[in-house]
Amino acid sequence: MAVVLGCELPDELLYDVENNMWYLENDDGTLTVGMTSVAVGMAGPLVAVTPKKVGRKVKPGKSCATIESGKWVGPAKLASGGEVVEINEALVAAPTLANEDPYSQGWLLKVRPDEWAGVKPQLITGGAIAAAYEAKMQADDFAGCEAAA
After folding, report:
1. Alpha helices (H) in the chain, listed in sequence order
2. Which has the least CB within 10 A, 22, 48, 88, 97?
3. CA dist 31 → 8, 22, 108 (Å)
4. Rounded to two decimals, what is the model's pTM?
C-alpha cells in the first residue's frame, strides 16, 4: 500500500487521480466505486452523501453522487459511464464512514460500466500511484491526511 503524506492508497485499486476516485473490479463485471482518502481528507467530515438512484445511467466524467462536508459540496465523478446497480445505504445513513474507512465500509456505489476497456488504461494503479498523488496533492496545496485530521 502506498502512503502519501499520511493518505493510504491500496495497491489493488484503480485510481482516477484528477477526480480523487477509486475503482475495484468485481467478478460480476461491475465496479465498486469510492472516494480516496485524499478526497475525504480534503473535504473533512462528510455530512451528506446523495448517490444517483439504482438503475440510473451516468455519462463518463459526470456526477454519480453529490458529496457534502462542512467546507465543500460537490460531485463525485465517474471516469467510466455506466448504470448504477447498488448504492451503499450504510454510507448514506452515516456519511463519515467514508472518512473513517474509505476503501471498505465507505464505498460509494457499484456500477455496470460502459466501455470499461477504453477507460481502464487511463487509470493509475500499483507503484505509479504514489508519484501521481504526490504531484496532485502539491498542486492542490493539500498538506496530507494527517494534517487534515
Report:
1. 37-43, 89-93, 97-100, 116-119, 129-139, 145-148
2. 48
3. 20, 10, 11
4. 0.95
Measured from the Cβ of residue 91, the count of other Cβ atoms closer than 10 Å reads 24
Domain ranges of the chain: 2-148
- Does domain 2-148 match CATH 2.40.50.100? yes
Cα dihedral across residues 117, 121, 123, 124: positive or negative: positive
pLDDT digit string, tens, across residues 86-121: 999 999 999 999 999 999 999 999 999 999 999 999
Distance CA 9, CA 129 (A): 8
Q: Which three cell numbers stand for residue 55?
A: 438503475
Q: DSSP for 89-125, please give it.
A: HHHHH-TTHHHH-TTTTT--EEEEESSHHHHGGGSB-
Displacement of CA 83 from its chain's centroid (Å): 17
Q: Which amino acid is at 138?
A: Q
Single out the residue of 46, 44, 37 nearest to residue 5, CA to CA.
37
Q: Which three cell numbers stand for residue 2?
A: 502506498
